[in-house]
Amino acid sequence: xxxxTVPPVPTWPRQDAIDLHKAFKGFGCxxxxxxxxLAHRDxxxxxxxxxEYRAIFNQDLTRRIASELSGHHKRAMxxxxxxxxxxxxxxxxxxxxxxxxxxxxxxxVICSRTPSQxxxxxxxxxxxxxxxxxxxVTDRCSGDHQRxxxxxxxxxxxxxxxxxSGAAAMxxxxxxxxxxxxxxxxxxxxxxxxxxRSWAHMAAVARAYEHMYHRSLEKxxxxxxxxxxxxxxLTVLRCADSPARYFAKxxxxxxxxxxxxxxxxIRVVVTxxxxxxxxxxxxxxxxxxxxxxxxxxSETSGNYRTxxxxxxxxxxxxxxxxxxxxxxxxxxxxAEYEWIAELVMPMECFVRSKLFLAANQIIQKNPSQPxxxxxxx
Length: 377
Hints:
Oligomer: single chain
Distance between the termini: 17 Å
Number of helices: 22
CATH architecture of the largest domain: Orthogonal Bundle
Family: Belongs to the annexin family.
Helix content: 55-70%
Protein name: Annexin
GO cellular component, one term: cytoplasm
Order of helices and strands: HHHHHHHHHHHHHHHHHHHHEEHHE
Strand content: under 5%
CATH class of the largest domain: Mainly Alpha
Strand order of the largest sheet: 1-2-3
GO molecular function, one term: calcium ion binding
CATH superfamily of the largest domain: Annexin
Radius of gyration: 22 Å
Keywords: Annexin, Calcium, Calcium/phospholipid-binding, Metal-binding, Repeat
C-alpha cells in the first residue's frame, strides 16, 4: 500500500508545469512549491508534467531540477521524477559503475524486486544506458555473488501464492544437505533454489527447514555463506517473508547511530513510496516503537526533510483504510496473512470478498496469533 497522497481533484499537468517554471525563476528556487507539486503526483502525472514542461518551455525538467536544487534534496528529487523502472535502472547504474561502487545497493535492488519488475528494469537499463545490466554485473561482481545476481535477473519466477508443500520440503532438504549437513558449502544448490523459486515458495521452504531441522534457514545461510553473496541470499529470504519488514530494518540501520546513510534512506523512500510504504511504516512502528516519520524528522533537515516526509506521509499506525478499495488492513505477524493483505489492496470488490473469507479462515485456524484480520467497509 502506497503512502503517496495526491489531490482529490486531478490537476492539469500543463498548470503544474507552469507553476514549476515560476518556482524556478528569479533569484533562488521556491522549493516549497516544487515539493508541493512533485511530491504529491503519481508516476503518470509526473511523466505528463515533464512532457508539458518540455513542450511549453523547450527545456528538460530533470535538468532544470538539477540546476536549481542541491545536496540530498536534489538527489532524492531527481530519482523521484523518474518512472519506477528507470529509477531502479539509474540506482543500479550508479551502484555498479559510479564513482563509488556500492555492490550492496545493487544486490538489494535486484534481489528485492519481482520478476516482472526486473524484466522492465532490464529493458529500461538498456534503453537508458546503451548496455545490458548483465554486462555491468559481470564486470563489477565476481564468484557466487555474480552467479546469483545473473540467475536472479534471468530466471522468470512464478509470482503467485500457490505453494507445493512437498516441493518446499524437498528444497529444504537439498539446502540442508548443501550446507549444514556437509563439510563446506555447495553454493550452486543455494543459487538454484533461491533464484528459481517464488517468494511464496521460499517462505514455505523456510518454514519447512525450521520444522525439519529445528533451526532457521536464515541462521543456516548466515553460517554457510558470507559477503555480498550471503547478503543477496538473505535479501531474497527476508523479502519472501515480508518485504515491509525487510525495508523497515534497512531504514532503521540507515538512521542508527552517528550519522545517516542518506543514499540508503533516499533509495528506500523514493522506491517504496508508491508500493508498500504504509506497510513499512507499520512494521517500523511495531519493531522500534516510534514512527518512521519521527525517525526521518530527527535525522534530516530543511527541504530534504520536507520532501522525504511528504513521500512517507502522515503517521497512521495499526489500521490502514484504503479509500479506493474500501478495505481495512490490520497489522499481523502471520506470514500467510501478510501475503493476502498485500495482494488484496488493488483488486476488485468481488475478488477481495473471496480473499477476505480466505484470510479469516487463516485467522480461525491460528487463534493463538495476536490481533485481528480483515474487515470490509
